[in-house]
Amino acid sequence: VLLSEVIMALSLGLAFSYLLKGSASRGIISLLVQLMSFFGGAYFPIGDDAGGGIMGFLVNLSPIRWGNHGLTQVIYGNDVSAAWPAVGLYLGFAILFLGASIAVMRRREGL
Questions:
Q1: Following DSSP, what letter does each residue of 11-80 receive, concatenated?
Q2: What is the pLDDT of residues 46-105, one digit of tens each?
Q3: In Å, how far are 8, 31, 35 from 91, measured between CA atoms?
Q4: Distance (Å) of CA 61 to CA 5, 55, 90, 92
Q5: What angle in degrees, to the nearest 10, is found between the helix axes of 2-19 and 23-40?
């Protein structure tokens, strides 16, 4: 789970660095990471999976929440199969972000 999360984070940073120029990319990435960490429960747990409304939507939208949920189920519930959805989502987004990076790089370099 953690390796796939790192791969997704690297591809996210690479995609934003190609899509945005200059220091704007660093600022946007910093803001996104802080928001994803907050809503994902990295600082403190926010609600449970059954939460509704806008806050429940934002909590379930965070990729960090997916990893936290999968790791919690593996560690405390002895349910290794709970990690696979998070790994699949992380690797899927990594492929999406790397594909966007490749497309932008080819367009810029004229390849």
A1: HHHHHHHHHS-THHHHHHHHHHHHHHHHHHTSSS----TT--HHHHHHHHH-HHHHHHHHHHHHHHH--G
A2: 766 556 778 778 788 888 888 888 888 899 998 899 899 999 999 999 999 999 999 988
A3: 6, 22, 21
A4: 15, 10, 13, 15
A5: 150
Long-range contacts of 38-46 (CB under 8 A, 24+ apart): 39/64, 39/65, 40/64, 40/65, 40/66, 40/67, 40/68, 41/65, 41/68, 42/68
Distances, alpha carbon 14 to alpha carbons 58, 82, 102, in Å: 24, 28, 10
